[in-house]
Amino acid sequence: MTVLAVDVEKRLGALHLAVRFQAKGGATALFGPSGAGKTSIVNMIAGLLEPDRGTIMLDDTILFDAEKNIDVPPYRRRIGYVFQEGRLFPHLSVQQNLDYGRRMSGRARDQEEFDRIVAMLDIANLVDRRPGKLSGGERQRVAVGRALLMQPRLLLLDEPLASLDAGHKREILPYLVRLRDDAGIPIVYVSHTPAEVRRIANTVMRLDAGRVVAIGGLELLDEPEADAFA
Amino acid sequence: MSLFNLSPDEWTAVALSLRISVVATICALPFGIAVGWLLARKDFWGKAVLDGIAHLPLVLPPVVTGYLLLISFGRKGPIGEFLYDYFGIVFSFRWTGAALSCGVMGFPLMIRPIRLALEAIDKKLEDAAATLGANRIRVFLSVTLPLALPGIIVGVVLCFARALGEFGATITFVSNIPGETQTISAAIYTLTQVPGGAAAAGRLVIIAIIMAFAALIAAEWLGRRATMRFHGE
């Protein structure tokens, strides 16, 4: 079943982005070199960047349709977004960061769900700290937890490991694999590192210069062009 | 303790100064945040004009500001007349008028740090809040405003300190009426004009210095606490 259907165009300076793809459940990687337009695509899915033309559908809902003048604002899309730099709120504790999405949507606290996600990401001992006192890997785990606790219909992970050193990357990858297997939420994973994509994705969407150049399984990572990105 | 052996009239001036400055600062704050936000975040026609008007009290002679307030907010002035007719609010020769002139004089000092703080905020944090389900108003209240807090505190204290020391615009607009519009500054001025007032003037001068100093220390302390919160404590 198709979960996400994207067909958009956007001019961004010299880059003319024109992509069309569908993603099913599981983890779909947007894979390609820097400057291919990967982050712009997820920003459009999240509603942070408005396409010039096209449509974005999630399940049966239209999130964006230029012709019908539909543009659901980001706060109503319920799409979890884990940014490259985490973007935890520095003035709130880890606990308050994790609770933020739930508070904004006015839901009552579900302690069981909270405990489950906190345990999955191994962040129970961090809840009283402030983001400023966390390591890079801890920060990204909290960012994942914060996105999960808003009960998203789709999870966007934009190079979540890019700002981490090799040790922290190894530390966090197993959590992301567990997330894919346990959470049951479709994932769009942006990366330019084949090793990362191999661990997490089951579908690969290869992008270059604003176009989708290939869609397929992990075998796309073995093609010679793929290594050039790394 | 002869220092604080103030006469009832002098105490009145001190209490009035505090009341006027507090009211002026509280009333100026929402406008200060709104104008600071507009200047920091929005591009619109007439932005330079708004910036100029907001900063005018800083460069105009205070007497001129006071005169402008008198002709616009006085009972016969267009704004003053409107406010009296529809809301029963009177500014001329009342302490409320003193608060208005103090607020206007402190305004430029208030918006500058607020504007700088808002400009320094990483808008990506606001985007993150939006993806987590916060609409624009909630993003502003839960992310933008708290992150701008150190700048807001500095703005509040500068405005308050300016209001405490305000003299020229206030005396022009609402005169120098003991118990109604006679602030510390106006009382000191009056005392220096009469024989034998030097001792009382001296006492008020010391009070004024203490109050200004306390405001600065409070600003420093509050600002440091607010900043520290962001770095992990």
Characterize the structure shown.
The complex is a heterodimer of chains A (230) and B (233). Chain A has one domain: Rossmann fold (3-Layer(aba) Sandwich), CATH 3.40.50.300. Helices cover 33% and strands 28% of the residues of chain A. Chain A contains 7 helices and 11 strands. In chain A, strands 7-8-9-3-10-11 form a 6-stranded mixed β-sheet, with helices on both faces. The relative contact order of chain A is 0.20. The model of chain A has no long low-confidence stretch (mean pLDDT 89). Chain B is mainly alpha-helical and 233 residues long. Chain B has a single domain, classed as MetI-like fold. Chains A and B meet through β7 and α2 of A and α6 and α7 of B.
- Rg of chain A: 17 Å
Number of domains of chain B: 1
Mean pLDDT of chain A: 89
Question: How large a portion of the residues of chain A is in β-strands, by DSSP E?
Answer: 25-35%
**CATH class value of chain B:** Mainly Alpha
Spatial gap, N to C terminus of chain B: 41 Å
Quick structural overview:
With 230 residues, chain A is α/β, with parallel strands linked by helices.
Q: What is this structure's SSE topology?
A:
The complex is a heterodimer of chains A (230) and B (233).
Chain A: E1 2-12, E2 15-24, E3 27-31, H1 38-46, E4 53-58, E5 61-65, E6 70-71, E7 79-82, H2 94-105, H3 111-121, H4 136-148, E8 154-158, H5 166-182, E9 187-191, H6 194-200, E10 203-208, E11 211-216, H7 224-229
Parallel strand pairs in A: 3-9, 3-10, 7-8, 8-9
Antiparallel strand pairs in A: 1-2, 1-4, 4-5, 5-6, 10-11
Chain B: H1 8-41, H2 47-59, H3 62-73, H4 78-87, H5 95-120, H6 123-131, H7 136-147, H8 149-165, H9 168-174, H10 184-193, H11 198-230
Helix pairs in contact in B: 1-5, 1-8, 2-5, 3-9, 5-8, 5-9, 6-7, 8-11, 10-11
